């Protein structure tokens, strides 16, 4: 294990292999937070963990409801006996990873964290980069991630066997987040992916490497360099929220990328051919949902709710403008403060489900 204090930035170290093999490296007396669904689908998971004599195995139901103060308290309450030198292992998708990251940060003022992503989305994105958060409810609507921390994992275990039980939709959601990084940060890779969509393990390796590259330059998001990772997230989070999280995060980000391309074109930041090429690639590669899905959600939601969600979003600027990541080309971005009249001009097309 690393000599750095628990949670401090370190370049991500990945270990690939079966869970049974990697678990042999888990210190005895650790705490494990496990997605209950994953434990059911992979019956050897809990016995493997139990053989390492953990202090506790805490099962949570994966999904946005895992990112609440109630779930966090459950993890903390079961982890009181963990010494400061102890390790917390998070086995699950992004929601389990996020709440576990917060728990690892506050437990004994910081314990070591090991991330075991079991969804493609967690493998390509959320289990790298040190961020964790829980959600809060504002005016009856869930606002994502306002209470969060930076707490880097010591190591990530990538166990491809877990991905065998993912549905097509879950694979699509993860692929969309991975393509987000490729589209906004790596033009040569984008060209390769367009020619031939990558196999899943390649997608995971590439996305983790791209994300690590960005985080290494700006581990605590102070220089603003990490903002590029929010491409597609401004309206993506709104869509997720107004759907009451029936729309999955990755699908929200997929549609959010289309809306960000529209904003970019409208402001003259994203050239039309770039927007068209990216939109086509997202449809053919990961399979972004159709614009009519975004339209149905936006039509239903009162404008005051949309506004409240956008202002509550931690990416909003000082005067309420939306601090959005826009593409200037494939693999290059610019951060723009977008005013309400600017994005409202696109509303009629967005609520009809057509490209403005
Ligand atoms: N911290 C970050 O940097 C970061 C980045 C991106 C996303 N996120 C967060 O991640 C969350 C989304 O992650 P997610 O999509 O993994 O969500 P999730 O954790 O809710 O998992 C999605 C569903 O898949 C199930 N599941 C998990 N592993 C499975 C497996 N191997 N087989 C079958 N089903 C499985 C879960 O039980 C859940 O129902 C969001 O809350 C998002 O805000 C965080
Ligand atoms: Zn995301």
The percent range for helix content is 40-55%
Give the CATH class of the largest domain.
Answer: Mainly Alpha
What structural class is derived from the secondary structure elements?
Answer: alpha/beta
Largest sheet: number of strands, sense, barrel closure: 6 strands, parallel
CATH homologous superfamily (4th level) name of the largest domain: Dehydroquinate synthase-like - alpha domain
Distance between the termini: 52 Å
Helices, by number, come to 16
What's the architecture of the largest domain in CATH terms? Up-down Bundle
Number of domain modules: 2
Entry summary:
The chain is of the alpha/beta class and 356 residues long.
Tell me what the structure shows.
The protein folds into 2 domains: 14-165, Rossmann fold (3-Layer(aba) Sandwich), CATH 3.40.50; 168-352, Dehydroquinate synthase-like - alpha domain (Dehydroquinate synthase-like, alpha domain, Up-down Bundle), CATH 1.20.1090.10. It has 16 helices and 10 strands. It has helices spanning 19-22, 36-41, 45-50, 69-78, 94-106, 120-126, 168-185, 187-195, 200-217, 233-242, 249-266, 272-284, 291-300, 303-312, 340-344, 347-352; strands at residues 14-16, 31-35, 56-60, 87-92, 112-117, 131-138, 141-150, 155-158, 322-329, 332-338. The strands form 3 sheets. A 6-stranded parallel sheet has the order 1-8-5-4-2-3. A two-stranded antiparallel sheet has the order 6-7. A two-stranded antiparallel sheet has the order 9-10. α7 (168-185) runs parallel beside α11. The radius of gyration is 20 Å and the shape is globular. The termini are far apart. The mean pLDDT is 95. The chain binds nicotinamide-adenine-dinucleotide and zinc ion. Nicotinamide-adenine-dinucleotide binds at residues 35, 37-38, 41, 62-64, 67, 92-96, 98, 118-119, 121-122, 125-126, 129, 131-132, 144, 162, 165-166, 170, 173, 249-250.
